[in-house]
Amino acid sequence: MEETGREAVATAVQRVAGMLQRPDQLDKVEQYRRREARKKASVEARLKAAIQSQLDGVRTGLSQLHSALNDVKDIQRSLIDVNKDWRQSINTIENLKDVKDAVVQHSQLAAAVENLKNIFSVPEIVQETQDLIEQGLLLQAHRKLMDLECSRDDLMYEQYRMDSKNTHDMNLINNYFGDMQKLSEELGKQLWMVIQRSLVTVRRDPTLLVSVVRIIEREEKIDRRMLDRRKQTGFIPPGRPKMWKEKMFNVLDRTVTTRIEGSQADTRESDKMWLVRHLEIIRKYVLDDLLVAKNLMDQCFPPHYEIFKKLLSMYHQALSVRMQDLASEDLEANEIVSLLTWVLNTYKSVEMMGNPELAPEVDVNSLQPLLSQEVVDDLLNTYMSTLTSNIIGWLRKALDTDKKDWLKESEPEADQDGYYQTTLPAIVFQMFEQNLQVASQISEDLKIKVLHLCLQQMSSFLSRYKEEAHLYKEEHLRNRQHHPCYVQYMIAIINNCQTFKESIVSLKKKYLTPVMEEIMTSSHACIDAVLDDVAKEGCSSLLDEVFMDLEPHLSELMTRKWLMGSNAVDTICVTVEDYFNDFSKIKKPYKKKMTIECHRRVVVEYIKAIMLKRITFKNAEERKEGAERMNNEAEQFRFLFKKLTAGSGEDTEGLCSVIEAIAEVFKLTDPSLLYLEVSTLISKHPDIRDDHIAALLAMRGDASREMKQTIIETLDKGPSQPNSNYVPIFKEITVPTLSVPKLLK
After folding, report:
1. In this structure, what DSSP letter does residue 378 have?
2. Which residues pair with 455 in a beta bridge?
3. What is the first-listed, main subcellular location in coarse terms (predicted)?
């Protein structure tokens, strides 16, 4: 208490200090005192009221406890009295057994009297009920059936109570009401017929469906009542529980299954599109039925039936079973695609379960898959296996068709830019495109697998394409008159390689993400390498064709006839230009390479003619004349190939300069300077060999034995290092076998 008092004084001091912080507040001291006095009086009054209230409550509680104690004592005395009375009356109760039996008998007789009217009129009521069922008045028929069942059940119950082991009397009652069981079965048939046609009935006569549901609900209530009675007494009437609600759902389930299975109108033998038609019919049926169930049937059933939810589950299960059955059949590739597209995409799309009118009751994200992943994988594996075989067959057929075109006497078609082509690339990539579009409808993973398969088979196909192009060339070489359009079709084969390249790039850009495109770069590079090989061999074949026609004219070079004034080079230039008019139909990447190669081969053949030593110049005049002809012919070649490579930026000087450099060796009049001229030639063309030098000196005809030996020995000591940009030309030029010592002699 002292501590509390000290705290109160300290608090009061703080309050007074807070009130008297300024001098002018001293004038208000009396006012503060009165206010605090009022607060104190108010607090004291509240404390007194609270204490008084607590005291009153305690007083009342004590009074109630005293009363409760007295009541408990009174009850205890009463229970003692009741116990005494019960012990005294045990014998009296045992003496009343006869009265009890009389009461039971009276109850049975009362039930019989109460149902007497119904008992005598059972045949009549049965007939009336039968007539009502036939007339379709199901509610009224059920009411009468309920009355009959009630009479039978009451009689049998009373008999059971009297003597549960007396089966004879129980059977007698049951047999007397035997027709009633047939009525129940007949009524059930009518109900199940309505339930089977419920989706139609609900649109035409919803009242009939409501009546059926009411009858089922009545039976469910009776079933529950009878089951409760069995728990209490052990008795249940024959035919109970009927479980008509469960039967109703079973009938609906069978109806749904039959509707799904019965929607197949065609077979593969009658219509190749049988599965597409079947799946479309299923889609339409299911969507229409579920919309009717949501908008109409749901109103005809009690909410706790959850009729729409149950129907949705039945349709989903029936569809799953049907899809499993279809998946187990021996489906073709296009049929597998149709099935998987429908199962994986169409089923949950807005065309079916994702239809806005079915929301929110149908959540497509909560629907289980119609087919297990294992079944889907098996179908995809089958599809990929079948597709692989089909693609191989399609590619083989396309190549066979293209090979037949190579034998035609008419030129191949040209594209809008005038380049020759065949239909092979278009056929192949149209096939690839179609299969990729189909795969895209199923899944992203399948699309990538199909594209990988297409590229894989493309690689194998191009190897066969290369072989067939080579065989085409060899067959042509055996008889050049047999293929009148050989050049044009070989050009088309070369152009096809470029078209294949462009189509592959386009296909990958269209169907692959940049990341996946990067991953598949290696397969693309492999295909490009094969295509380049095919094109390279095709270009080489065309150049072989050119040089076969040039061969008679090339054989005139470096002969007496040539020195006297042959027009062989003019003919060579005209022939090459004529061929390249056809070669203009080759697409640029390959045309450019082919022109460069032709230029190189013409120069190489020209130098080969020099190395063949067909002529030896007799004097300086012949050497000068030969050198001038060589310079003129080099200029002709330069002009020709400059014309053929116009606009390509290709250097046409380097190769022809080799001919001019050799001409300088022949043109030289002072033999003493021959060593320097040959050294210059060697420095520019480090791949030149001693047999080449020997052949040049032999053709010149005036080099002494010592000069030849000095020049060749110098070459043997150490050839100069070639420039990094130097393209060897002498490397592939051979000189007819003749040893150097013999040449020196």
Report:
1. H
2. none
3. other
CA distances in angstroms from 314 to 71, 176, 253, 256, 319, listed in the order given: 65, 41, 6, 7, 8
> What are the backbone dihedrals phi and psi of residue 642, each rounded to the nearest 5 degrees, phi first?
-65, -40
CA distance 675 to 715: 11
Give the residue carrying structure tokens 């030849």. Answer: 708
pLDDT band at 741 (very low <50, low <70, confident <90, very high): very low
Tell me how far apart the alpha carbons of residues 570 and 343 are, in angstroms, rounded to a whole number.
Answer: 73
Q: Directed axis angle between helix 373-406 and helix 444-478, to 10°?
A: 20
N-terminal to C-terminal alpha carbon distance within the chain = 148
How far apart CA 745 and CA 740 sit, in angstroms, is: 9
Portion of the chain with pLDDT greater than 70, in percent: 88
Distance between CA atoms of 700 and 623, rounded to whole angstroms? 7
Interatomic CA distance for residues 446 and 380, integer angstroms:
8
Which residue type sits at 168?
Answer: H
Dihedral pair phi/psi, residue 268, rounded to 5° = -60, -35
Map residue 668 onto helix, strand or coil: coil
User: Bridge partners of 420?
Assistant: 414
Q: How many CA atoms lie within 13 A of 513 on its CB side?
A: 4
Task: Write the CB contacts of 151 (distance below 8 Å, at least 6 apart in sequence).
Answer: 115, 118, 119, 122, 177
Quick one: tokens of 602?
């013409």
Buried b (16+ CB within 10 A) or exposed e, 426-442: ebbbebbbebbebbbbb
DSSP per-residue string spanning 173-197: HHHHTHHHHHHHHHHHHHHHHHHHT
Contact present, 534 and 466 (Cβ < 8 Å): yes
Distance of alpha carbon 689 from its chain centroid, rounded?
64
CB atoms near residue 342 (< 10 Å): 25
> What's the Rg (C-alpha) of the chain?
56
pTM: 0.66
What CA–CA distance (Å, rounded) separates 599 from 591? 12
Rounded-to-integer distance, Cα 709 and Cα 719, Å = 16
Tell me the per-residue pLDDT of 368-399, one tens digit each, with 9 for 90 and over: 888 889 999 998 898 899 889 999 999 999 99
Peptide bond into 360 cis (omega under 30): yes
How far CA 500 is from CA of 14, 392, 398, 428, 497, in Å, comes to 100, 17, 14, 9, 5
State the amino acid at position 518 in one-letter form. Answer: E
Q: Is the distance from CB of 436 to CB of 513 less than 8 angstroms? A: no
Quote the CA–CA distance of 454 and 619 in Å, as a whole number: 69
Please give the backbone phi and psi of residue 420, each rounded to the nearest 5 degrees, phi first. -60, 145
Cβ proximity of 347 and 325 under 8 Å: no
